[in-house]
Specification:
Elements: E1 9-18, E2 31-36, E3 46-47, E4 58-67, E5 73-80, E6 87-95, H1 97-100, E7 106-114, E8 120-131, E9 146-147, H2 154-183, H3 185-243, H4 246-261, E10 266-267, E11 273-274, E12 279-282, E13 285-289, E14 293-294, E15 308-310
Parallel strand pairs: 7-9, 10-12
Antiparallel strand pairs: 1-4, 1-8, 2-3, 2-5, 5-6, 7-8, 11-14, 12-13, 13-15
Helix pairs in contact: 2-3
């Protein structure tokens, strides 16, 4: 579960994008990136400046910090700035827990973005740091970026389809208006009116569907926040017990059998720091650390499969 205290935040350095699909019909496209923790709140979006005539590769190098309150995903959108309606280049949802669980709670990531048909639309480089978590450490992004997890969220995709339809409608409307001057406004006006009616009906249908999905998403988040509060209460209780010495006493009692039966494996410490390759014993099973991290009582070796592997 994600941290939901006001003391936690997410630092986002928007570095660049490469291999962007071209959505502009003439000349080079002018990309910018915008993002939000809740795509249903239009005023919650933050955006970079527009890289004029960038074409398929854009650079921004801008840093933002946003407060975290248990939100599970960061939603990013790359658009081509136009004089009328901006066109969608690509978008994605990025799970925030991959940043929280990373070593030092930060990562220099490369994330795929997608078009509304699910096709890959480019690659975005974001340097992310989760601040205020038990394992948070000062980030060092002087390293090669690694592949991060991103996916196409259904309700977010519906928003992008609606944006694309508006952009297409403006382009088609301009072309039809020019044609009307040549072929007569009568029949064309009727066709435009019918198309407009169909577009309004489709937009209404999409709005109703988006509202249904939003309500489902709110219920899901409510359940996740309840689970997080339970996890946090357990974490604070177990941490207090450990700091009072119960963990050290258990470790002393088991040290002899651990060292004789399992080589260099030591008892798992729920607030310890581990490097890749370290071995621990937990509930009678020996586990090997897969990636360096600072533990907390909710990341038990038997549950945190991205951090531990049973031997």
């Amino acid at each position: 579960m994600l941290h939901s205290h006001n003391s936690t935040s997410l630092s986002i350095h928007v570095s660049s994008a490469t291999d962007l699909v071209s959505v502009q019909r003439f000349g080079k496209q002018d990309p910018y990136l915008q993002f939000s923790l809740d795509f249903n709140q239009r005023d919650s979006y933050l955006k970079t400046y527009t890289h004029k005539n960038a074409g398929e590769n854009a650079t921004w190098n801008q840093t933002f910090t946003i407060t975290l309150n248990g939100e599970p995903e960061l939603y990013i959108e790359v658009l081509d700035e136009e004089n009328t309606v901006n066109e969608v280049i690509g978008f994605a949802a990025i799970p925030i827990n991959q940043v929280v669980h990373a070593s030092g709670a930060n990562m220099n990531g490369l994330f795929d973005i997608y078009d509304t048909k699910g096709n890959r639309a480019g690659l975005v480089n974001l340097q992310l740091a989760a601040l205020g978590f038990p394992n948070s450490a000062p980030p060092n992004f002087d390293c090669e970026p690694v592949r991060g997890q991103s996916y196409m969220h259904e309700e977010h995709c519906a928003r992008m389809r609606s944006t694309n339809k508006k952009a297409t409608g403006v382009a088609v409307g301009g072309a039809l208006l020019g044609g009307a001057l040549a072929i007569g406004a009568g029949l064309l006006g009727k066709k435009l009116y019918e198309d407009h009616q169909q577009a309004e009906e489709e937009e209404q249908r999409q709005a109703e569907e988006a509202e249904r999905l939003r309500q489902e998403e709110e219920e899901k988040r409510r359940q996740e926040r309840e689970e997080f509060d339970q996890d946090r209460a357990r974490f604070e209780r177990e941490k207090s017990e450990w700091e009072q010495g119960s963990g050290r006493r258990d470790d002393d009692e088991c040290r002899g059998s651990d060292s004789s039966d399992n080589g260099d494996a030591r008892k798992w410490n729920p607030v310890g720091t581990y490097d890749a390759g370290d071995r621990v014993k937990y509930h009678g099973q020996v586990y090997m650390c897969l990636q360096g991290h600072t533990s907390n009582p909710t990341w038990q070796p038997g549950a945190a499969h991205s951090l531990w592997q049973a031997e």
